[in-house]
Amino acid sequence: MIRAGEVVIRRGGTQDSESIAELHAHSWRTAYLGIVPEEALGDGMVGQRRELWELRLDADYGEPENTPELLVAETDGEPAGFVYLVPQPDGRVLIDNLHVRPGLTGGGIGRVLLAAARAFVAERHPGAELFLEVLRDNTRAIAFYEREGAVRVRAQEGVFPGGFLLPEYVYAWPGRSES
Asked: How far apart are CA 56 and CA 164, in angstroms?
């Protein structure tokens, strides 16, 4: 467990699927409004996110080096954000999700989560490149990642729920994963 001010970072598990699904859906509806087609942010999203997180957190990935990791940020015992790290076959580690509860963004929780992710990768996957994909029009997230030392490595199209193709960038922290 890592403590930073009032934020506690802990490893997540199956007991977190409901709260993470709700936080994930709420964050998407807030951060992606006007960026993602409204149909992708519709009424069924909480249920879809719940199903996704139940599957992710209950799956057996085999060897520990292949197992994704959920890190949950808590304030006052409540989930305030999370980061989900997925080891890739090529040795890199994907930040598949990094979300902070709407209303708490800009307060340092994302920075603490990213630092915890980088420390986790440095310990469990020494030397691995940490990377993520971010929607091109999510300028707030892009500014955050660039402030935190990420480098844009390419542009591509990402597939969003509902089959929507959206332009995105890949950012990475090349050559090292620790702060």
From this structure: 22
Per-residue pLDDT reduced to its tens digit, 139-152: 999 999 999 999 99
Dump the DSSP string for 41-107: GSTTHHHHHHHHHHHHHH---SSGGG--EEEEEEETTEEEEEEEEEE-TTS-EEEEEEEE-TTSTTS
Cβ atoms of 18 and 51 closer than 8 Å: no
Provide the pLDDT for residue 5.
55
For residue 99, list its beta bridge partners: 82
Helices 17-31, 45-58: axis angle to 10 degrees equals 130
C-alpha pair distances (Å), 151 with each of 9, 26, 46, 69, 129: 25, 28, 32, 23, 11
- Cα 134 to chain centroid distance, Å, stands at 10
How far apart CA 27 and CA 25 sit, in angstroms, is 5
Spatial distance between the Cα atoms of 28 and 124, rounded to a whole number of angstroms: 29
d(CA 51, CA 105): 25
pLDDT at site 32: 87
Q: What is the dihedral of CA 31, 34, 35, 41, to 10 degrees?
A: 70
User: 87-130 pLDDT, tens per residue?
Assistant: 999 999 999 999 999 999 888 999 999 999 999 999 999 999 99
